[in-house]
Amino acid sequence: xxxxxESLAKRYESLTxxxxxxxxxxKFEYTDLAVKTAFSELSKRDVSEEDIKRYKTKLINxxxxxxxxxxxxxxxxxxxxxYYIFWLPIFNFAFKMNYREKGEYLKIKQANYYTTxxxxxxxxxxxISVSFEFDEISTLFLWLSCLLPTYAFDDFLNRNVIIKxxxxxxxxxxxxx
Length: 177
Description:
- Keywords: Membrane, Transmembrane, Transmembrane helix.
- The chain crosses the membrane at residues 81-99, 111-134, 140-157.
- With 177 residues, this protein is mainly alpha-helical.
- The chain folds into 2 domains: 5-47; 67-176, no CATH class.
- Helices cover 82% and strands 0% of the residues.
- The protein contains 9 helices and no strands.
- The protein has helices at residues 5-13, 17-25, 32-44, 49-72, 77-85, 89-102, 105-131, 136-145, 147-176.
- The chain is elongated.
């Protein structure tokens, strides 16, 4: 189906200035005709410099918000405990996918960290419990007590390393542009 300039012009008349600005910002995703028609529609509207500045400010704020989502939105303490206890993927896969969809990189890394250490701490705990003949409650208490150093290590070292990696990646991406 071929799209005519007239049909595009009619459709673009109903778009807001911001939607047209966004189209022009992503011009490589559109045909030359679509970009030309969007530019033509904006020129008809007599867009002011203030409108352009407002749109650019909105974009900058969105990027800053996305970046802070990547870096500063970490898991809450109860979430860390739950990932440590429910380390089987069947219990936590949906939550991790939700973080991925939202672009919350730090949460994904932390969830993986706690599930991995919850799983890895279980084996020495069971070995110690069997060799010293602990009961089930003592075994559970020993396994959960491994959560304290896991939590401390995450807050003081692991989280900071992840944040530094994100900053480095962001700086490298910025240089490439």
